[in-house]
Write a structure and sequence with these properties.
The strands form six sheets. This protein has a five-stranded antiparallel β-sheet with strand order 1-19-3-6-13, with no helix packed on it. It has a four-stranded antiparallel β-sheet with strand order 2-7-9-10, with no helix packed on it. The protein has a four-stranded mixed β-sheet with strand order 11-5-15-16, with no helix packed on it. A hairpin with a 2-residue loop joins strand 9 and strand 10. The N and C termini lie close together (9 Å). The protein is built from one helix and 19 strands. It has one domain. By secondary structure, it is mainly β.
Length: 356
Amino acid sequence: MINVPAAGLSQGPMISPAEFIALSKTWTCKRAGIYRISALGAGGSGGAIYRTNGNYGGASGGGGGEFRELEIFLPLGLSLTITIGSGGVSAVSSVDGIGANGNAGGDTTVNGTGVSITSKGGAGGLFTITNAQSKAGGAGGTGGSGGYFSANGGDGGAITHLDAGREAGGGGASGSPFGAGGDGGSAIPASTAIASAAGGGAVGGYRGGNVTLTGKYAGGAGVCENGGDDVTTGGKGGNGSTDSTISADGVTRGGVGFKGVFDSIFDPFRALSGTGSSGTLSAATAGTPGAGSGGTGGDIRTNYAYSVASCGGGGGSIGASSASCSYGGGSGGCSCFSSAASGSGGNGLVTIERIG
């Protein structure tokens, strides 16, 4: 849509591409108009446990960040102070039998005349080595302020540990314009001990795959379907497809960069349309934008080709590490019989778009 020119001079487009703000700064309005401000809190990291005595341990996933949005007229020259929350720092368990709880993601804030937004970060996951003990995943970010719309982050996936088992919950997705983020998948044995990893959640409330049986690596959620339970199948994307190179607008995309970013520079949060990645025993791949990654048995630090897609939750790992997240997602828990580390939660993000 284009403004009607005045006095023969072009006024330029009313709608502009989003400005992505990933680092804290002062932003100054260079042209008066109606703007959409979207603020995303940071994701929490999953717990981690390294134990070799045969009874092992379990670790739950981190929570996703809260999402808030405001549409408002901004005058020329108005300044906004933007603080970007940092993702929860990786939990590291490097001493046999001594685990580490995950860390909370930071809050993202936007403040200026007439504007005051706080989007809360997600909480960290937990660990346990106690037989028959359950641990909840980190709570998704909630309770912020400001904006005309808000959506909580998804909770990290819970675990129940049984001696001789290794259980890893998935990370929660961030909130988005589609509502609360999906929870990470849980790792709760149906009866006997399991060594299995759950999938990460997706935007729109879709849950990562749960695991209840041993030797399972559940799929990550897509933006229109849960990840598969006790199977490796990832959830479908916004076009109803499992093709990770096609977004909801029908445009075929590809390349490494597509894995971890956004589908569009216009209204980017509403364009999230990714498919969940499959669970795998070894090297996992990321879901595409908005979607979760699958659970894995591999060492993500050396084998994971990409960080988890924007706003999606990371899969749990029963290898040496789980994946770090992009923008708002919570990372999965990590349980291993050698040194274990969860990925870091995704950092917060602010986008600003001129829409009128």
